[in-house]
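Q: Could you fold this chain for me?
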Amino acid sequence: MCERCSLLSRSGLSRRRMLGAVSAALAVAAAGPAPSTTISGDEALHRLIEGNARYVANTSTMRDFGAGRASRVVTHRPVASLLSCADARVGPEFIFNQGPGDLFVVRVAGNMLEQEGLASLEYAAQFLGSPLIFVLGHSGCGAVDATIKVIKDNAALPGHLPELIDHIKPAVLAAQKTQPKDLLAASIAENVRQNVQKVTAATPLLSDLIAARKVKVAGGVYDIATGKVTLV
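A: Sure. Below is the predicted structure, expressed as structure tokens.
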């Protein structure tokens, strides 16, 4: 057995399984855009709102996460794509009471749009037929709160955190101009709005799909205390 095959064997991956995975990935790329989805963006948004209402009311549908596993090997048609904060308290599948394979989720602190996240959303829309992109912020967002501290107190942050803050600053500055009673809450909502605008204006792919009404964009803020998502 060669060294490569030995490594595959120890990792639990057979050569056949590895080649199968590569072939499946190449097939998806070669197939081109996914056929039109069976539901519209408006219907997808309604499904998320209904799921969140169940979550808030503590009547979430119990799901067997093992069911349908085999079928998910050959098909992947998420009902919506989410740009969500990476906060551990924010679990989109639970918040919207959706099952495995229903949501295509991009998560980054501050739910901000970066190039890699944008490419991921483009992939879901173009190749997986996802009809909805939803930007999800949440109450008490630490990334937004840190940005406020940097602006107000000139706080210094280590590592790559200043780069994160730079992405969120425009939302905080815009919220400040309205002189809100709760700057953090206003900034969180404004950050969602600005990222919705960035997704909508993303050329050439998403902007064209949105203009053709093949993809809908929406945003909301999740209240950690109540569980409710409020559209913004």
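A (continued): Residues 1-31 have pLDDT under 50 and may be disordered.
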